[in-house]
Structure formats: structure tokens, C-alpha cells
Design brief:
Elements: E1 13-15, E2 18-20, E3 27-31, H1 39-51, E4 56-60, H2 67-75, E5 82-85, H3 93-96, E6 102-105, H4 119-132, E7 136-142, H5 148-153, H6 158-175, E8 181-186, H7 190-203, E9 210-212, H8 221-235, E10 241-243, H9 255-268, E11 283-286, H10 297-308, E12 318-322, H11 328-331, E13 337-341, E14 345-350, E15 353-359, H12 363-381
Parallel strand pairs: 3-4, 3-10, 4-5, 5-6, 6-7, 7-8, 9-10, 11-12, 12-13
Antiparallel strand pairs: 1-2, 13-14, 14-15
Length: 382
Amino acid sequence: MESATAGRRTRAVRIGGVTVGGDAPVVVQSMCATRTIDVEQTVAQAHQLADAGAGIVRIALDSDKEIPALKEIRAQTRGITLSVDLQENYRVADRVAPHVDKIRYNPGHLHHIEKKKTVDQKVQWLVEVARDHDLAIRIGVNCGSIAPAFLQKYPGDQLNAIVESAAYHCDLMDRLSFTRFVVSLKDSDPQKVVEANRRFAERRPDVPIHLGVTEAGLPPDGIIKTRLAFEKLLAQGIGETIRVSLTLPNERKHEEVIVGHKIIDDVHAGKFISVPEFGKGLNIISCPSCSRVENEKFVELAQQVKELTEYATKHKITIAVMGCRVNGPGETDDADLGLWCGPTTVNLKKKDRKVGFFSYAEVLPRLRLELDRLIAEQATNH
């Protein structure tokens, strides 16, 4: 499917051997969920994703200890275009740069490191690293980790904060005369994804967009959420590369890629889903898992949460299940009930208030108790 329609054609951005934007077809990508330090498993998953049709494979890297592993992964995946997710540690960019084709930084994760430096100075350094190593950059703005400066500037208007943060970082790239970048504006709400990307596409028609519904969750609901956003945007020519984020065990991770290609093919053929009642009741969001997940029981727990809460499907309640300390604390704040998973315990929350830490076995009965309380509160208020 061509990424451009009348009135919108972005610049072409080269990422390794792949082109995103311009006249290029939409590129489907995915992310390894294996531990980066486990070279054998990560190499196998990178090939698994590429064989399924992923044009770009992303790997998360969170510490210096993983850099030797990344070097070896690169050596065994020469034919694959690799992107690295810097998450909260942008300072490792110069050391990972020789081993990847693209770096992704999150504008919301720049302010708390090296506080004596400005965000502009940090971005300038990232651009210098990218230039020196022939890399592309993704500016990845996420709903759960928006830079505080933009949340303060647009209080109560998260959607505007996302768009303005992305636009600001594009302006930084312009001032630095760097054009090899793409932008993503992600949320777990498909409607917000549509609106944010529409606004940004109108604001910056030149910039290729990476589409994603973050923490879409378990199939089939996660696929429906993703389609609801992607179908509308792709049909309007918005979206030059896509990533479907599903909570899946490692052996099924390639299904993200298959679903992505299916969505593109269906939009091209004019096939769209219709689910008028979807999203009006219980909403379970869960992250797709990655190398930062500290306990592989996370995916199993997400499935157990879905099964446990079947009785509450008609209630307008959001439950978030997050797999790590990076996304867990912030991206559960807006959920009615949130679980973020550590190595041995799960932190249970109500909105931004901590209920307590529980073992993986103990958390489900407590979740049921808190869910019943919420349902009772809703009944009383109505």
C-alpha cells in the first residue's frame, strides 16, 4: 500500500537498507521481547520477526552491560535493519550506534538525566551521534511518559501535550539541519492515536510517521484496538511505518508482523472492521513485553487478568498490566486499576495511588477484591 495520498507525501528517510516515507510502501516493524543480554534468543527472535515480514526489528537496551551483547547480535543479523530503543538511558547512544541503523529516543525520558544540560543540548548530541554513524532517529512520544514541561504547559490536555512535544522536537531537528527522522505519537486509546496523528500530520506533512497503539494488549481485543486506529489513519495516507503491539509469548511474537501486513492489505482492499460496542465496557491494556520485562510470568498474568475479569466486561473500568519498571509506574496512573510487574512482586495501584506489593500468586485475589469494590462504587454513584 502506498503511504502517500493526494496532499500528503513525506520526505523519504533511509534506515539501513529500508526506506520509510516518500514513495515507499508502508513498512511493518516489530520489537524483540527477549532479554538483549541473551544473544542466542535475541538473534533467533530478530530472524523470526524478519522472516515474518518485519522491515525493521527493534531491540531495547537499558545499560552498558548489554552493549557487548548488542555487538554480537548485530554480527549475527547483518541482513536485518536494527533499531535500538534507548528508553531512559540516552547517554549510551554513542556506544550502541556502531551496531544499529536507527536510534529511538523518548522526549519524556531526557529531563531527569544530566540535569545541568538542556534538552536541546541532549538532542543535539544525539543528532551528532546519528550523523557520525549514518543513523536515522525516531522521536517516540508516549502518553504515559510525556515530558513534564509539556504537561505543565497544557494542563489537563494530554493530547495537545503529545502533539506539541513531537512538534517541538521536530523543530529542534530542523534547527540542526537533520532530516533523517521519523516521529511516533502513541496512546493506548485508539481514538487519541487517530486524533494526535491527524493533528501532527497536518502540522508536519513532511515528516514520516510511525503508527502505534501502545499497550494494545492481548488478542483479539488488542488487534481490534489497533485496527480502529490504523484503518482510519492509513486510509488517509497517514502512517509510513507501523508496529502492532500485542501481549504475546515469545514464540508467537511474529504474529504482530502478520497482523500488521493484514491491516495494510485490508485497507488497500477497502476492508474495514465495524465494532460499534467496542470500548464501552471493561478495557484491559497491557504492554507487548520486551527485554525489560523482569519476570516472564508477566504475559501469563495478563492472560489470567483477562480471564478473571470476564464477569465485569460490561463495566466501564480500565485495568492496566505493565511488564517493567520503565513503563509500569507512569503508564498505570490513568487506569482504574494498575499492575506493574517486578522480578518477584506485582505493584497494584488504584489510579496513581499504591495499594501494595503482592506476589504473582497473591495479586489476582486482591485484584478481584478491588475490582468488586469499584463495581460497587459505580453502582452507588449511579
